[in-house]
Write a structure and sequence with these properties.
Number of helices: 15
Order of helices and strands: HHHHHHHHHHHHHHH
Largest sheet: none
Radius of gyration: 19 Å
Distance between the termini: 13 Å
Amino acid sequence: MDRALAAHLAADVIENLATPWPYQLIALVRAPDEALAPAERTPMFASCFDWHSSVHNHWALLRLRGRLDDPELRARADRALAASLTAERAAAEERHLRAHPSFERPYGLAWLLLLCAELRARGDGVLAALERIARDRLIAWAEILPRPIRSGEHAQSMFAMALALEWAHAAEDADAATRIAAAARRLHGGDRDAPFGWEPSAYDFLSPALATAWLMGRACAPDAFRAWLDRFAPRLGRPDVPVPGESIDRADGKLAHWDGLLWSRAWMLAEIAAGLAPDDDRRAPLLAGAEAHAARGLAGLGSGHYAGRHWLPSFATYYYLSTGNPCRADRGGAPT
């Protein structure tokens, strides 16, 4: 990743973490004494417009920190993380999750696992209790789903299961990896002829079809995945590749989702390509499509609208620094 871009993304993330309002509170209130302000309810993740965005902003800052050349910017990142990731705040988050069993399931809990994996890699167990809750809830949820949730927004099941698998491998949790992968194959093993022409919906920031292939690439052995992909998307990369779109109103929180769709499509196309054989003729078109989406996505990062700024830096960070992107090494390798 370009160091100037890393600094730009990190500066936005630090500002997001220091922005408590506006905040979209999604909570079941069962009595008057439960009508609490975000900082009282979930103090660790009470910024960045909503809980899940705060979670993945924390993740992004941890990922970006080692790529910051400016000592002052790195110090600001350290101060922001140290102020937020405390045992006291973690205990409050745990109490809230235990009192609200379906809170932020699946999207926020999946990002929470990715944040926990990042902390785990640094030997920091401050979120260990939250990690266990998110793990168990996502596994139980995936195992009882009767059908996939093919949304292009937060409820999508494929995205959450793919991130949960990424966490399971990072945490070396073989039981979790086996169970989530089995659930993915049960839900999607018979999928075929994905209707790419139906995408994207106006509010999508995730592609249902590409996310399905992204998940199955993580849930299947390589040969099984390639055979499945031939049935699911026979024209993907032969020669069809989704064409990058563009947000028509970056001040509108929903219509700005297409800027995020550019980034999520980019990393999904790249990882799908990585799951193919080296001589597969689909690899080059898919990787070119990933790069085209990322290039278009850069425009949305500088829009100045909080509707996008509160979350798009995290998605850009995931594209450049996710473990599955085969272009990642060319952008500087693993974070330090």
